[in-house]
Structures are given as C-alpha cells and as structure tokens.
Amino acid sequence: MRYLTLTFVCVSTLAISLVLYLATNNWFGAGDWVSYAMFSAPFVFIISAIFLYVRNCFKNRILLSSIGLFLGGAFGYGWTYCIWLILGPWFGAYSFPVSIFWIIGGAVTGIAAGFIPTRAEPLGVANSGSVPLRSAPPEKQS
Question: pTM for this structure?
Fold first, then answer.
C-alpha cells in the first residue's frame, strides 16, 4: 500500500506538471506525451521503490523529507541523463522540458516519502515528525 501511494504521488506530479505546461502553451507538443509516459514509467517504479527503502531507514520524518527533496531531484536529473544517453540528439525533440518534470516528480516523491508511515506505525498516527501535542498534566492542589 505504501509503494502504491508513492507511485501515485509520482505519477500525479508528473501528469499534473505536464498538463499544466501544455495547457499554458496552447497544447503545443501534446503529441510527445506518449514518449514521455513511456520513459516516465520506469522512473516512477524505480524511485518509488528507492524511497520506500529509504523510508524504512529513517525515523525522523522532517530529515527524510529534506533528504528526499535533494535525493529525488538528483535522481530526476540522473534519469534525464540516462534517457539522453538512450535517445542521443533525439532528446532535444521533446516539445516540453521533461528534465524539469522528472526533477520535480522526484523531489515531490521524496518529500512525500517522509510523510508515509513505516510498517511499525499504524496508519492513523500523525506524521508530523515530532511528539504529538498533549495538554499539560493538571497541577496538584495542596
């Protein structure tokens, strides 16, 4: 379930960023979305698995979200480079900035990984990364 959540976050981020970009450019380059989706599918599954593993290694959610922001962005940049190696000069044929979308998708997935509970935590636990707020104990009256 946690893997599917991270996968959904990544797919949603990639799709929303693509649709917003295309909508603001009068849908210029809309024909490239199939190739973008084909090269984004492995990215989504790999980065979700990586962050699920990393999530189980950290206890502090704020630290994980901070690390996930930079690690996800770096992975998105690395993914761009790998696809550039595969496509060669044809990488420049994309009508929209796929590298920015993969960097944003990785960073958002990394941030989201910090707010998904580990296996040891029940799903209803607040995921703030700090001790839950409690009222002070009543003062003893003597």
Answer: 0.78
32 class by beta-carbon count within 10 Å (0-12 exposed, 13-18 middle, 19+ buried): middle
Is residue 99 within 8 Å of 80, Cβ to Cβ? yes
Distance CA 118, CA 126 (A): 12
Longest dimension (CA), the chain: 82
Are 33 and 18 in contact by the 8 Å Cβ rule? The answer is yes
Question: DSSP letter at 1?
Answer: -
| CA 58 – CA 133 distance, rounded (Å) | 22
pLDDT tens across the length of the chain (142 residues): 788 888 999 999 999 999 999 999 999 988 888 999 999 999 999 999 999 888 878 778 888 889 999 999 999 999 999 999 999 998 888 888 999 999 999 999 999 988 887 665 555 554 455 444 445 555 666 6
The C-alpha angle with vertex 106 and arms to 105 and 112, in degrees rounded to 5, equals 90
